Amino acid sequence: MAYEGMIAETITINGDKNEPISAYVARPLGSGPVPGMVLLHHAPGWDEWYREATRKFAHHGYATISHNLYHRAGPGKADDVAAKVRAEGGVPDAQVIGDTEGAVQWLKAQPWSSGKVGVFGTCSGGRQTFLYACHTNSINAACDLWGGRVVMSKEELNPKQPVSPIEYTQKLSCPLLGLFGNEDRAPTPEQVDQHEAELKKYKKDYEFHRYDGAGHGFFYYDRPPYRIEQALDGWKKVFAFLEKHLSA
Amino acid sequence: MCTSIVEIVAANGAGKGEGGWFDLTHSVVSYDHPHHALFEEAINIDFVNPALGAGARVAVELSLEAAKELSAALARAIAQAEIEEGARLRHV
């Protein structure tokens, strides 16, 4: 049996405007080189599911960092901090982009890094993953899982989210994987259609997979939307996509 | 959040959270993913005081039906309270 080892710990990295933010890192032990993954947590916050997902990617051979997009809302339990951020109208898109670039650069600077990095996010993190992938040239793959509000109406725009992410599609800098449930209401299948049409229009490298019998958040094994068959297939799609785009 | 349904009003009163009673400054009502209740979306009500930190929060997560019943009960209780208050003022 081959020896397996992993280290998982919280660290501090430089986020947007070089401000310190907290992050959770899990990586296989050893000198590498290994590819990296950056996880953008969902609206419910920097929580246990994202800790587990970070370790899952590490188990599959990726040095993985999940940075705390809600760091500036202060310390506290994930649900309390997420409620505070919700009341504040979310976090600014520009700040998320800066924080995520910080996480990517932290990974790339490590001696065990292969230099290839992918980004993954669910829910609001899926939206932010796409948004970030349209504002950087630092990554090799992006996974948007049921990101709501990639397509935003004018009424939904606000100072923190001033532009509908779909408007940036032309700038998408890397291959994109999208996983969606056909019973989701944010995004709706029609919004996914709109996004796909835009990706086709600009001849972007993408693959979308849409699941019947699934809605929003179908990977979350501890929540009612969990759909085991769709989730297991979805994880296979994620790791096949990453193998294709992040292997040496 | 995946919906943008959030309503915030000022609150004057007190709430009992994990650390005991604290003064409230705001009530936040949203329709969004709950953390604990086993619904995809819920009416979430947070009574908070942000100046005391994120933990100064009394939280409930209700089904839409339960929230409608609560809203109606609040309206009935407030209507009766206003009658009581009116009667009190007439006796002053």
Provide an overview of this structure.
The complex is a heterodimer of chains A (248) and B (92). Chain A has 248 residues and is α/β, with parallel strands linked by helices. Chain A has one domain: Rossmann fold (3-Layer(aba) Sandwich). Helix content of chain A is 32%, strand content 23%. Chain A is built from six helices and eight strands; from the N terminus they run βββαβααβαββαβα. In chain A, strands 1-2-4-3-5-6-7-8 form an eight-stranded mixed β-sheet, sandwiched between helices. In chain A, α5 links the parallel β7 and β8. Chain A is globular and about 50 Å long. The model of chain A has no long low-confidence stretch (mean pLDDT 97). Chain B is of the alpha+beta class and 92 residues long. Chain B has one domain. Helix content of chain B is 30%, strand content 42%. Chain B has a four-stranded antiparallel β-sheet. At the A-B interface, α2 of A face β2 and β3 of B.
As a percent range, the share of strand residues of chain A is 15-25%
What count of domains describes the coordinates of chain B? 1
**From N to C, what is the helix and strand string of chain B?**
EEEEH
Shape of chain A: globular
Structure annotation, total helices of chain B: 1
Which whole number gives the mean pLDDT of chain B? Answer: 93
Radius of gyration of chain B from CA coordinates: 16 Å
Largest sheet of chain A: 8 strands, mixed
Instruction: State the end-to-end CA separation of chain A.
Output: 25 Å
User: Superfamily at the CATH H level of chain A?
Assistant: Alpha/Beta hydrolase fold, catalytic domain
Mean pLDDT of chain A: 97
Q: Which fold name fills CATH's third level, the topology of chain A?
A: Rossmann fold
Helix content of chain B: 25-40%
Categorize the overall geometry of chain B: globular
The proportion of residues forming helix of chain A, as a percent range, comes to 25-40%
How far apart the termini of chain B lie comes to: 50 Å
The largest pleated sheet of chain B is described as: 4 strands, antiparallel
Radius of gyration of chain A: 17 Å
Widest sheet: strand ordering of chain A: 1-2-4-3-5-6-7-8
